[in-house]
Amino acid sequence: MLGRFFRSKSKTIAAYGATYQRRLEEKAAAARTIYDDARDYHRAHPPGKMATIPTKPLASPADLALAYSPGVAGPCREIAVTPGAARDLTAKGSTVAVISNGTAVLGLGDIGALAAKPVMEGKSALFHKFAGLNSVDLCINESDPEKLAEMIIALEPSFGGVNLEDIKAPDCFTVEEICRSRMKIPVFHDDQHGTAVVVLAALQNALELTGRSLADARIVTSGAGAAALACVELLLSAGARLDNIILTDRDGVVYRGRRKAMDPRKARLASTTRGRNLADVIKGADVFLGLSVGGVLAPAMVETMAAKPIIFALANPDPEIWPEDAREIAPEAVIATGRSDYPNQVNNVLCYPFLFRGALDCGAVEITEGMKLAAASAIGEMARRPSDPAVRAFYSDETLEFGGQYILPKPFDPRLLPAVASAVADAGAREGVAARPIADLDEYRRELAER
Description:
This protein has about 450 residues and is of the alpha/beta class. It is built from 19 helices and 10 strands.
């Protein structure tokens, strides 16, 4: 497996496979423990993580007559005449569908729709916890992307937005493109765009700490799948230069003229470099952005990077390089992973609840590039502020001060909701996609802060 990515004769690089495996084995016992604890957590009565709770009183026959027949005919008639009234008469405007077919579940692969349900329930729970949004998980047994898209489109009357999750590439592109072109509510593939937003937020802070600019940073990716391509596209929108970016995948460098395992998205981002493998092109790089598989970045490669390298080893659950191995080579490196047991976890929960809150509240019909950039900026800025006392109590063993060990805020920071949601809503209005622009953003932020 590792050899396919290295394509190198270096014995030092090849030797990292054994070191990496030892690290992996050291963490296996802890992983087994948390898996057992999670089973008990999910099995506790009532099973699962979600429930349906009415928001109106149902304490008397009079209440029943209002909630259902005959009184319910009143709001039905109004919506039939004025569809926009559904936002004021139903929960549609504050409800997100979390939809998956279970073909690419993070760290687990194609496990099917039913086995993916705990993940989707978790996503729905986090929408409610962090943004106060209702959410319904829908795990659908459909592997044909066009049929899956048709099913999702048919659900539009029930939801204010759609969060696509854990759908394999390239099917995820097809599903999202069809849904976005035909639906008048936000459709957001979180594996692509949520990752990209949080990566951009983290990278902007890491660049500031190391005295670099996005426009000048030399960036090398490991992985050229859905998440990596979305990250690169957003980095370009934020000011990165394509001639400073080199993508690699399991077949080596994505270069112009390559024929194997190429598609139009990769071709647009292909490099003119003469390097043909990760070991070649990582030399002198400022940033390593890993969205691939564990163990592909050997310490010997880190040694060839620029001073104070930025290393985002985001493969989950096993990163492209263990942070302790990278830091042995580059003590001043800024390192992020996708894991919660290391500093600087790139976690999409920093994005999607708050982004959807802002998008739904302003009546956005889509989520634009500008809204994603606004979310990234607001998330990154939060890490530069003094940390909230309540958050410090949650993370008493960490120093939550802006620096190499703290380039992203924590999900439990209560300031994220008003900051990110208002930035997204404002961007939606400025870009002309908000059906209900928020007139007073300061008041909106105060309302969110009080929830």
